[in-house]
Amino acid sequence: ILLSPLTDSHPQVRRHALLLSESLLDSSKELLSKTLDLAADADPMVQFQLALTLGESKDSRATQAIAESIMRNSGQRDIVDAALTSVGTRAGAVLKHLLSNQAWLASDDSQTVLAAIVGQIVRQRRPTDLTVLLEQLNAAETGSHGIGAGAFLKALSDVPADALVQADSPQLAELNRLRASAAAALVEEARRILADDSGPLDV
């Protein structure tokens, strides 16, 4: 019944069909596939609803689609916020998808999103997500993330130190170490930039 409305010519019909399909996504592969196809929909209302609807599916394709929605709608803050509400308990997986896109990491909007997801992982303290965060941070610290390393380390340095305090968690202890290292690296980089800017000028 919902397959046809998802491809209707009117965007409000497609949006409403997305809303009605939410409870059925993980029981119908065809319905989920049709829903994912709407990633190419040009209507912002449909994109907004899709970002919300994806949060109702536990399928790995929906997880990837949430990350893609964040990147695709960069600059559309309401749609990005909707996608962030759909992240739920898969912040680590979404983070991995985001960090694989260097073009998005270089965008002005990446910092706010990275800070939100890193903060969510720290607050939720799910071991699997903390492991992903540690792996990605270690990669960033060694330069493996290239252009996105600065934004990623900045996101970690923005996490309050007391959020990483838990005596029986080696993962949080390591995150606290990386946070201090990230903060020191950012200060050093700022000093280097200031030193370069205050150098002699060509006349």
Query: Overall mean pLDDT score?
Result: 85
**How is the main sheet built?**
none
Q: Provide a count of the helices.
A: 11
Q: What class do helices, strands and sheet pairing give?
A: mainly alpha
Q: Tell me the span between the first and last alpha carbons.
A: 72 Å
Tell how many strands the DSSP assignment holds. Answer: 0
Rg (CA only): 20 Å
What is the H/E order? HHHHHHHHHHH
Top keywords for this entry?
single chain; 203 residues; mainly alpha; 11 helices
Produce the secondary structure layout.
Elements lengths: L10 H11 L7 H9 L6 H10 L6 H13 L4 H9 L5 H9 L2 H4 L4 H15 L2 H15 L7 H9 L12 H28 L6
Structure overview:
This protein has 203 residues and is an all-alpha fold. Helix content is 65%, strand content 0%. The chain is built from eleven helices and no strands. It has helices at 11-21, 29-37, 44-53, 60-72, 77-85, 91-99, 102-105, 110-124, 127-141, 149-157, 170-197. Helix 1 (11-21) runs parallel beside helix 3. The model has no long low-confidence stretch (mean pLDDT 85).
State the gist of this model.
The chain has eleven helices and no strands. The protein is an all-alpha fold.
